[in-house]
Amino acid sequence: MVEFNKKEKLFNLKGIALGNPVLEFSTDFNSRAEFFWSHGLISDSTYNIFTTVCNYSRYVSEYYRGSLSTACDRVMSQVARETSRFVDKYDVTLDVCISSVLMQSQQGSRELDVCVEDETMRYLNRKDVQQAMHARLDGVQRWTVCSSVLEYKQLDLQIPTVNTVGALVKAGIPALVYSGDQDSVIPLTGSRTLVGRLAARLRLNATAPYRAWFQGKQVGGWTQVFGGGALSFATVRGASHEAPFSQPERSLGLFRAFLAGQQLPESFQ
């Protein structure tokens, strides 16, 4: 869009917000070990081998290349045993929907019923609902969460996107990276590190101290602003990988401030 606008002004792009994004493969994925350990999901000994014998980026790379080593297989088996399949890795503090876990699917949110995804699947697979929505099921027998209809080339994860974010910022497009702070899949620690590195590379100074921001009368999360808002980082407190799903009110406050070009509230509202 930015490149096209250089030839013909067509897109009114005002900014970009990225939620729990993979910005750089190794940093993002390897931050899982610290997140698991700091939240009590793995032992000291497992944390040690998860950071020395085989880290998560190495495991993913080997797995999708079909060359999984014995060392990585052993480490990940130990990590899986300790973290438990009865903990949602996308929201480690949330209770799980047992039926979903047993079906190897995910579950819902703290604000709603934890089985909301099971219920959504049943609803969207009703014939009357599909007819009302004019849904086409060509080649698709059933709607499912994270289906395999759309396939990603998993090793493309290794292509960094943080450079694209930097190019957007240099083009004058404000960028916000935000993290649900209960997500262990793409933890806030990796995102915060990468945003800090990007700010340093772009020579953007911190123009506001790292601080808490508020939604209503509660802390909504924490935030750091660089270059007068050219680049920002924020967490959404108590939120999952899909922050608006698990913390809709706080996420709405975050988006409203970003869209208005305003700082996140520093005190009770």
Automatic annotation (TrEMBL):
Keywords: Glycoprotein. GO terms for molecular function: serine-type carboxypeptidase activity. One of its GO terms (biological process) is proteolysis. Pfam families: Peptidase_S10. InterPro entries: AB_hydrolase_fold (IPR029058), Peptidase_S10 (IPR001563), Ser_caboxypep_his_AS (IPR033124). Belongs to the peptidase S10 family. This is Serine carboxypeptidase-like 45. It comes from Zea mays.
